[in-house]
Specification:
It contains 13 helices and no strands. It is mainly α. α5 packs antiparallel against α10.
């Protein structure tokens, strides 16, 4: 092979590299929003394609959980809800919590589940967790519609406070993204992290006022209890839906700060780790 042909081959080599690292992949991911939309559509379609009820499963599953919780906590244990009907009280907390729980697991598994694709072609890896969160937001919006219907059936008509619900869902989704990004980097290396995370999320529902009222928590534990960001998501959901009183405390500011630090740290960790993810599959 002549020196001229070798020079020509070298000139045709294209090297694809991530964009500037200080953006943590966010700019690059949103520049390829068409690819992100494709991933979201594909994941929603794949989830319900071979199900008899299709997208209705997004409503049937939480309704089944609500029925179980209502029987156990509402009628057998008779949990005090401050006079609010238990189905509406519980579902208002479930909507935000289920979004957080499901989205956290989806983001955490996004790298491992798509390792075959990651190892074949380059694209902004952050698209995978963003698509996972978006898919769960789709299901959450359907749950919110069902929640509004249930609330009206129990005598709680819509009010302007409901405008807060989309903000609550977005905050819950961002928190799930923050936690999930940390876990995604670990699951690629250690597969047993995922079941541990699942157990932790199940336990987390019972240290968040989803199935009971936060008024049951002793005062001496309240500040530590309110540091949980999902505490505020659940409480604001109930305020938006049926006007349940909510008391602001300094823990809200600390909780928001911790959430932002978790998200920033998750983005940094994910950005640093994504180049090594294929090597440890």
């Amino acid at each position: 092979m002549s020196a001229e042909m070798q020079q020509t081959e070298r000139e045709q080599i294209t090297i694809i590299q991530p964009s500037v690292r200080w953006t943590l992949g966010l700019v690059e991911a949103f520049r390829r929003h068409e690819l992100l939309s494709l991933f979201v559509t594909r994941q929603i379609s794949a989830r319900y394609r071979q199900m008899f009820l299709g997208v209705l499963w997004a409503l049937v599953e939480p309704l089944g959980q609500l029925l179980l919780l209502t029987v156990v906590f509402g009628y057998l244990l008779k949990v005090n809800t401050g006079g609010y009907p238990y189905p509406v009280f519980a579902f208002a907390g479930m909507a935000a919590w289920l979004l957080f729980s499901r989205a956290t697991l989806a983001v955490a598994g996004s790298l491992q589940e798509n390792m075959g694709l990651i190892s074949k072609v380059y694209f902004p890896r952050l698209i995978l967790p963003l698509a996972a969160v978006s898919r769960e937001l789709f299901d959450a919006m359907l749950m919110i519609v069902l929640l509004l219907v249930l609330a009206m059936a129990y005598g709680f008509p819509p009010t302007p406070r409901l405008l807060v619900l989309p903000v609550i869902l977005m905050c819950s989704a961002m928190l799930a993204l923050a936690v999930g990004l940390w876990m995604a980097t670990l699951i690629v290396k250690f597969r047993d992290v995922r079941p541990i995370l699942s157990l932790a999320l199940q336990a987390g529902m019972y240290v968040t006022p989803v199935v009971y009222s936060a008024d049951l928590v002793p005062e001496r534990f309240r500040f530590a209890y309110e540091l949980n960001p999902m505490f505020w998501a659940v409480e604001f959901s109930r305020w938006a839906l049926f006007g349940k009183d909510i008391v602001m405390s300094p823990a809200l500011g600390w909780s928001a700060a911790v959430s932002l630090l978790l998200l920033l740290g998750g983005l940094i960790t994910f950005s640093l780790f994504e180049r090594m993810s294929v090597d440890v599959q």
